[in-house]
Amino acid sequence: GAGVSQTPSNKVTEKGKYVELRCDPISGHTALYWYRQSLGQGPEFLIYFQGTGAADDSGLPNDRFFAVRPEGSVSTLKIQRTERGDSAVYLCASSPSGNSYNEQFFGPGTRLTVL
Amino acid sequence: KNEVEQSPQNLTAQEGEFITINCSYSVGISALHWLQQHPGGGIVSLFMLSSGKKKHGRLIATINIQEKHSSLHITASHPRDSAVYICAVRYMDGGSQGNLIFGKGTKLSVKP
């Protein structure tokens, strides 16, 4: 079956612009996670959805970052007034539920470059 | 602060060598994951374990809960094993059940 997909695969934007990154989780997975990976670092948690609601958004770095999952499937990560420091690979993962013992399945990531 | 430490940071091996990558964490966890990331960013889950040992092909993962330590072993290494191997944990801290805390990864290069 289809895995987690993310679009676009690459996004280049200018400082100050607004960007949206999309994640399509595996069908039926209720838990969805966004992570950010800077060059040479491990991924860092941003936000976790259980269904339509954000169960934990403690990893969002500031109020320029926002994510939604209105129908409990596709999620969009939105970044306002982008800064060069936002350049990273943004990873999405899904799992059947938020149970600690569920495996997370990762998408290929979106590489964001802010010039 | 909950942290995940991996060692070594970089590892170069000759084809056929036995490889060990280590992961240490600071407090109680509910699960530990070993992930593989190839150039280009895609992450594949190799193992998820909360106790004991798991084996899949040439890969073996072990965890010692008392010592808060896990190891990933690769037997008869091959150039196609070259990738970044990442350890990630879920802490039993009563907070979010969702997110993983990641190590910085171990970059493995296997030479033919």
Verbal overview:
The complex is a heterodimer of chains A (115) and B (112). Chain A has strands at 5-7, 10-13, 19-24, 31-37, 44-50, 53-56, 65-68, 75-79, 88-95, 105-106, 110-114. Chain A is mainly beta and 115 residues long. In chain A, strands 2, 4, 5, 6, 9, 10 and 11 form a 7-stranded mixed sheet that branches. Chain A has a 4-stranded antiparallel sheet with strand order 1-3-8-7, with no helix packed on it. In chain A, a hairpin with a 6-residue loop joins strand 7 (65-68) and strand 8 (75-79). Helices cover 0% and strands 59% of the residues of chain B. In chain B, strands 2, 4, 5, 9, 10 and 11 form a 6-stranded mixed sheet that branches. In chain B, strands 1-3-8-7-6 form a 5-stranded antiparallel sheet, with no helix packed on it. The chains are: A mainly beta (115), B mainly beta (112).
Summarize the helices and strands and which ones pair or pack.
The complex is a heterodimer of chains A (115) and B (112).
Chain A: E1 5-7, E2 10-13, E3 19-24, E4 31-37, E5 44-50, E6 53-56, E7 65-68, E8 75-79, E9 88-95, E10 105-106, E11 110-114
Chain B: E1 4-7, E2 10-14, E3 19-25, E4 29-37, E5 43-49, E6 52-56, E7 59-64, E8 69-74, E9 83-91, E10 101-102, E11 106-111
Parallel strand pairs in B: 2-11
Antiparallel strand pairs in B: 1-3, 3-8, 4-5, 4-9, 6-7, 7-8, 9-10, 9-11
